[in-house]
């Protein structure tokens, strides 16, 4: 017997949303690290928290200058979201 599929929806409580993001962010970073080691690949994650703070992870040092540049320029979240989810960019 399999698990029941849960409906994914936005967490309305701001505190719970932030806690969930923090926990899942750490899990995602761990998986990215494992993938980088297992497959010997370069990997970078860039995430914006619910409060708008930038979080990042890079498997190799060569991504560090790129992440630093993004932090100094601070690309607005709206632009990043619209670019990432625009089907013509995929």
TrEMBL record:
<protein>
    <recommendedName>
        <fullName>MADS-box domain-containing protein</fullName>
    </recommendedName>
</protein>
<feature type="domain" description="MADS-box">
    <location>
        <begin position="1"/>
        <end position="61"/>
    </location>
</feature>
<keyword id="KW-0804">Transcription</keyword>
<dbReference type="InterPro" id="IPR002100">
    <property type="entry name" value="TF_MADSbox"/>
</dbReference>
<dbReference type="InterPro" id="IPR050142">
    <property type="entry name" value="MADS-box/MEF2_TF"/>
</dbReference>
<dbReference type="GO" id="GO:0005634">
    <property type="term" value="C:nucleus"/>
</dbReference>
<dbReference type="GO" id="GO:0046983">
    <property type="term" value="F:protein dimerization activity"/>
</dbReference>
<dbReference type="InterPro" id="IPR033896">
    <property type="entry name" value="MEF2-like_N"/>
</dbReference>
<keyword id="KW-0805">Transcription regulation</keyword>
<dbReference type="GO" id="GO:0045944">
    <property type="term" value="P:positive regulation of transcription by RNA polymerase II"/>
</dbReference>
<dbReference type="GO" id="GO:0000977">
    <property type="term" value="F:RNA polymerase II transcription regulatory region sequence-specific DNA binding"/>
</dbReference>
<keyword id="KW-0539">Nucleus</keyword>
<keyword id="KW-0238">DNA-binding</keyword>
<dbReference type="Pfam" id="PF00319">
    <property type="entry name" value="SRF-TF"/>
</dbReference>
<dbReference type="InterPro" id="IPR036879">
    <property type="entry name" value="TF_MADSbox_sf"/>
</dbReference>
């Amino acid at each position: 017997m399999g698990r029941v599929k849960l409906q994914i929806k936005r967490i309305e409580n701001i505190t719970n949303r932030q806690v969930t993001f923090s926990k899942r962010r750490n899990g995602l970073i761990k998986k990215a690290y494992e993938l980088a080691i297992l497959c010997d690949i370069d990997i970078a994650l860039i995430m914006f928290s619910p409060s708008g703070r930038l979080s990042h992870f890079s498997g190799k040092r060569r991504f560090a200058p790129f992440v630093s540049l993004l932090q100094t320029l601070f690309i607005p979240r709206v632009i990043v979201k619209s670019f990432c989810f625009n089907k013509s960019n995929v």
